[in-house]
Amino acid sequence: MPIVLRLILTLVSAVLGVFAAKKLKLPVPFMLGAMLGVAVFNIFSGEAWFPREIKTYTQSISGAYIGLSLTRRDIKNIKQLIAPTLVMLFGFLVFTTGVGLILFKVFGLDMATSFLVAIPGGVTEISLMAYDVGADPAIVSFLQTFRVFAVYLIFPAMITKTRERVGIEETEALEGEADGPKREYFIDRFIPDNDVLRQLMTAVIGIIGGLIGKATGLPAGTLSFAMIMVIIVHINSNKLHLERKYKRYVQVLSGTLIGLSISMDTVHSFGKIVAPALSLIFFYVAANYIISWFMAKTKKIDFISSMFASAPGAASDMALIASDIGGDSPKIALLQIIRLVACYSIYPMWTKLLMGWLA
């Protein structure tokens, strides 16, 4: 089959998968739908094709979106949450190490895949890291997606029940700087006011950071450096901007790349990851209670807010759910962002070190 026709059919499969995922109301429908659509096409034909070089740019734009979620106000407020932040980051470092070893030793997953599925980051971002550390992207994507299902299905109900059973002593909200007129930054003189050009420049900054990160050879270097580059510019500018709708295209590309790795042989191996998937959720629930207990002991955040902050879901979603159930939403959102930053920078490098020591 001509390569152009293979490319067209692959993209059509991705789009059809997205429509199906939206109809079924699956989480992360643009990435998961594209992945499933391309996977089905590849399983039955073996002809799916897409230029893998696009992965670098996909990771870079993903990093840019993450970088835009952190503001100067967030940076200033971090000092008020140093103790619970350190507890949370150390707790998840222990969690990633312990669960990764269990998945590797007990369930027989390869070492890279075992450690990567234990990282509580975004489905798209962690799945893309699989290529950098030599993990199985299909299994990583499946287990990370299963974790997303479980988080939104189990954790709100679990935290609600916990709140009913324990007395909660709420802590004071963050005393962040009051909203006021936007400060003028020197760098903004070089960024045009045109919205299209602002978004293009934001993407270029992320891509430059991603290319630098790729050149370093560090695990998840592309995404991490793109994220860091955008954070540095973003906290010193009022003009960096990327519309959320473009993130859907990034997710479709990510899902397409992952779908390429799924073949009939992959399908035959899926049976062996049911037990690891269920075990993974059990470990996440246990870790949430343990890490939250230690975070609350710092007296800087209450136990329920700690549970939301250490729940492996999206920052905005956890903060929104907390506003209904109860919890300090600003602290939750900030700690969730810090956790995600660690998931894309600290934990992948730690995973690489562990693999080197255990090899």
What does this protein structure show overall?
The two termini are 41 Å apart. The chain is an all-alpha fold. The protein has one domain (55-171, 184-358). Helix content is 72%, strand content 0%. Helix 6 runs antiparallel to helix 7 (123-133).
Quick structural gist:
The protein has helices spanning 3-23, 29-45, 54-68, 72-77, 82-105, 111-117, 123-133, 137-165, 195-216, 221-234, 245-260, 264-269, 274-296, 303-309, 315-325, 329-344, 346-358. The protein is mainly α.
Question: What labels describe this entry?
Answer:
0% strand; mainly alpha; 359 residues
Series of secondary-structure elements, N-terminal to C-terminal: HHHHHHHHHHHHHHHHH
Count of distinct strands:
0
Q: Output the number of helix runs.
A: 17
Q: Structural class, judged by helices and strands?
A: mainly alpha
Write the layout of secondary structure elements.
Blueprint: H1 3-23, H2 29-45, H3 54-68, H4 72-77, H5 82-105, H6 111-117, H7 123-133, H8 137-165, H9 195-216, H10 221-234, H11 245-260, H12 264-269, H13 274-296, H14 303-309, H15 315-325, H16 329-344, H17 346-358
Helix pairs in contact: 1-2, 2-11, 3-9, 3-10, 3-11, 5-6, 5-13, 6-7, 6-8, 6-17, 7-8, 8-13, 9-10, 13-14, 14-16, 15-16
